[in-house]
Amino acid sequence: MNQVTTPQSRCRAAVVRCDITPPVGIYHRMWGAALHDKATGIHRPLTATLLWLAASEDHPKTDGETSSQSADQIIVSMDHCILDTPELDSIRASIAAATGVPVDGIHVTLTHTHGSGWMSRKRSEFPGGDMIGPYLDSLFPRLAELAVIAKSILEPATIVYGQGRCSLAAHRDFYDEAKGHAVCGFNPAGAADDTVLIGRVSALCGSTLATIVNYACHPTTLAWDNTLLSPDWIGAMRETVEQHAGGLCIFLQGASGDLGPREGFVGDTAVADRNGRQLGYAVLSALEEMPQAGTDYVYAGPTLSGTWIGTWQHRPCSESATVAHTTWSWHTIIASLPYRHDLPTLEETTQNRERWLGEEQKAQATGDVARIRECRANGEQMTRQLTRLNALAPGKLCPVPVTIAQVGDGLWIFVPGELYQIFQQTLRARFAPRPVFVVTLTGDWQPGYIPPASTFGYGIYQEVIAATSAGSLELLMEDISRSVREKIAVVRSEL
To answer: Which H, E and C letters describe 63-102, residue by residue?
Structure first.
C-alpha cells in the first residue's frame, strides 16, 4: 500500500446556533431519586446547533435519482434529554414551512443531557410545570428562524473525516453482589467503545465552519443532587473544541445505551466540566492529525541519506476521487421490530403509580427522607412507563424509521431510540474503511432502549424497560445493512 486515503465529502454547508435555555424555576426533575422539582439556576446554557447540508453544485445526478434523495438536509442537535413526539414533529414542521426543506429532510436529534429536565407538557401539573408549554412553544419559531439564517449563509465546503479515542465512556451494566441484582453504573470489567468519529467542515478558504463530534456516552455526570439546568459534559466539550479549532462544534450522540461516564451520577458540575474537557482534548488531538481537504497521503519514494528514507507527501486527490466526494444520496427505511410479549398494561401501571404516590404522602407526613426518595423513585418509574406505553404505535410491530445517507465517502445513519454500543461497532466493522456516523435519539425517543438479545433475562435496567423483544437490535442491524448494500454506492477503490 503506497497511499493513505483521506475520507471526505464535498458539499455545501452552514452551521448556526442559538440559546435554548429554559427559564430558572421550570420543572426540572429528571431523576426518580431527586428531591427537588424546579431548576434553581444554570450551570451552562442549553443550545441548539443547526447544520445545513446540501449537495455540491457539481454533484452528478444519477439515473432514477428522486428529489427526496437529492434534497437539502438539516440536522438540529438540541441539548435536551427527551422530547415528546408532537414537539419534535412541530419543530420539523416549523423549519420546513420557513425553509421549504421537506419534513423528512429535517433531522432533530438530542444530545440526551439529563441536566435539562423533562420538558413534557404531560408534566405541567408538577411544580414549575406551568412553564413547560410556553417554553416549548417558543422553540418552534426560534429554530425556524435559525434555519433561515443558515440557508442565507450556505457555502461550498468539504468535510474531512477523522477518528480519535477517548476513555470517558465506560460500560454501565454492573452486577451488585451484595444486593444480588444488576445496577446501572460503572462496570470496571465491562468493555466500552472509545471511538470518537469527527467531521471537520471547512470552507473553500480553509477556515473551519464546524467540528462534528460523534461519540457514544450518556450525559449522566449530573444526577439527582443537581438542581441546575445543564448540558452536562457536552457543554465543556464544545467550549474546549471551539476555543482551539474555531467554528462551532456540533455533538451527535452515538449508540450509548450501555455506556456512561466513568465518574457520574453526582451533583458537582466541576466533574461534568472535567469529563467534557477530556473528550474535547481527544477531539483536538485527532483534529491535529487530520490532513487538509482535497488531499491524500501518498508514498513519494526513497531519498538516500544515512540510509534510504521512505518519504510521504500530501498530494491532491485523483479526479475520480474528487467526483466521488460529491456523492449525495439520502434514503429512509422503516424497520418493523416485534414488541415483547410481556409488556405491562396501562391498567396495572396506573395502579402501581397510585400506590407509590400514596406511600410517598405517608412518608412525607413522617419526614422519612429515605422512604420519600424510594417512593418518589418508584412512582416516577411508573409515570415514565405510562408515558412509554401511551406513545407506542398500536399493533404487534413497532415501526422504526431510519435515515441512511451517503455523503461523499461518509455513511450517516440516523435512528430513534437508545441503542447499545454493539450497534455502531457492528455497522462500522461491516462498512469499514468508510467512516460511519451513528446518530441515535433522532426524530423520536421511542421505542426507548433497544438492547441486544444477550442482555435479556438478567434484570438489567435497559432490558427491563425495553418495549421491543429480544433480537430486535439484531433485526435492526440486518435491515440497515441490507439497505446500505442495496442503495449505497461501493466504497471508492482508494479507500
So the answer is: CCCCHHHHCCEEEEEECCCCECHHHHHHHHHHHHHHHCCC
Average pLDDT over residues 277-285: 98
Instruction: Using DSSP, state whether 106 is helix, strand or coil.
Output: strand
Domain boundaries, the chain: 3-294+322-339+393-487, 346-391
pTM exceeds 0.90, yes or no: yes
* Residue of 260, 259, 242 whose CA lies nearest to 251: 242
What sign for the dihedral angle of Cα 421, 423, 429, 431?
Answer: negative
Q: What's the pLDDT score for residue 491?
A: 46
Contact yes or no for 43/235 (Cβ under 8 A): yes
Identify the CA nearest to 367 among candidates 9, 35, 6.
Answer: 35
How high does pLDDT run on average in the chain?
93
Is it the case that residue 493 has pLDDT exceeding 50? no
Q: Alpha-carbon distance 464 to 476, whole Å? A: 19
Residue 187 amino acid letter? N
Which grid cell is 495? 479507500
Scanning 122-172, the segments in alpha helix (DSSP H) are 132-152
**pLDDT for 86:** 95
